[in-house]
């Protein structure tokens, strides 16, 4: 039984004001929710999102959002020595002693705005909460947990899995256990840029009814652990829950320094770039009708970004090879019949929950074969198991309500494929720093070179022209 100890924390009274007043309130030490993670930061993220969604259930949905809602935030400070006390109710298991830091802060930005965005993207708050904090019963029969719960009645909450330790900008990428959402660490400048564009972004999402190739921003947070501030943003995963991505590209429409390095190519699932795409004579065959609809949507989104003076974004392209996946499934079944299926089960367990002692493998070696790699500057391929994955679907089939960025290859395509395509990295504003970089690259490569740091109008035109040229 958990000790009936309480801890004083600071909680917000009003969620709608730009600066919320706080009061002291006592919380009883948690008895059921055990936030299991390999890093204290992940535990704080899970705890904070769980707390946030629970608090939001008591806040009425407003008729309309007010200007102050786009400046609002909520903060909570926790000083709880009981988390690390082996004699406390949450310390009966050894791994729980390091489960939560004794002191931390959690800040959520614009909670009502992001709740409204989740609704417009057809994401239920309870599903969002579950994905980011809870390992559902359907997964327990497949995952081999690296630690055992204190009680069979306890709810084990599984941390997001770290897929990419560091990208080009030192960002970390995490994915929820069910592959629905991606969590990316960002910097304070990104937070400021998000605040700059959020009102117009929200209006754009309202006008297009959530039908967009832009990132679906679902929440933004600041976590403070050991005095270090970490900013995180949550988005919908571009790739599928159930269809493995076999090849992926980060495309900008530029040709200067746009080729994957040899180090990148050596990875299990490299992120290829524009020159790789061109040299391989890769094509995206979706048919004339789908091409027309896709380019119309892309043009609308890109023109919106140009209006905001945003540049340096990419089109993330993931390709699922249906025939290859079907063959891989046959090979797995043959291996299981031969009694050799245990290794994959262990891999799935690490992929689902990480390793308590060593943490998640930064190179993705804990994931299913062919699904995991080091993900460069782009979000990870989060192909894997989920509740949706258990639905009886044939090879290459997907749920368009879940895989919102997916398109099937046209019947005329040389290979049966499924494409996942979305715009990513839209928080780069064309400021003085980018102007200086443009000038430097122009001197180095010449005025006619297809460098990436051009002004937003040029960037958007070149981007659209390139994407139109690779679609059939």
Automatic annotation (TrEMBL):
* One BP annotation, GO: regulation of autophagy
Record-level GO cellular component terms: cytoplasm; plasma membrane
Query: Where in the numbering of this chain does the PIPK domain appear?
Result: 37-471
For whether the record's keyword set contains ATP-binding, the answer is yes
SUPFAM superfamilies under this entry?
A: SAICAR synthase-like
Acidic residues bias: where?
A: 326-359
- State the UniProt keywords alphabetically: ATP-binding, Cytoplasm, Kinase, Lipid metabolism, Nucleotide-binding, Transferase
UniProt GO molecular function = 1-phosphatidylinositol-4-phosphate 5-kinase activity; 1-phosphatidylinositol-5-phosphate 4-kinase activity; ATP binding
Reactions it catalyzes: 1,2-dihexadecanoyl-sn-glycero-3-phospho-(1D-myo-inositol-5-phosphate) + ATP = 1,2-dihexadecanoyl-sn-glycero-3-phospho-(1D-myo-inositol-4,5-bisphosphate) + ADP + H(+); 1,2-dihexadecanoyl-sn-glycero-3-phospho-(1D-myo-inositol-5-phosphate) + GTP = 1,2-dihexadecanoyl-sn-glycero-3-phospho-(1D-myo-inositol-4,5-bisphosphate) + GDP + H(+); a 1,2-diacyl-sn-glycero-3-phospho-(1D-myo-inositol-5-phosphate) + ATP = a 1,2-diacyl-sn-glycero-3-phospho-(1D-myo-inositol-4,5-bisphosphate) + ADP + H(+)
Q: Where is this region: Disordered?
A: 324-375
Q: Which domain of life is it from?
A: Eukaryota
The EC number on file is: 2.7.1.149
Tell me the compartments it is located in. Answer: Cytoplasm
Principal subcellular localization: cytoplasm
Tagged with keyword Transferase: yes
Identify this protein by name: 1-phosphatidylinositol-5-phosphate 4-kinase
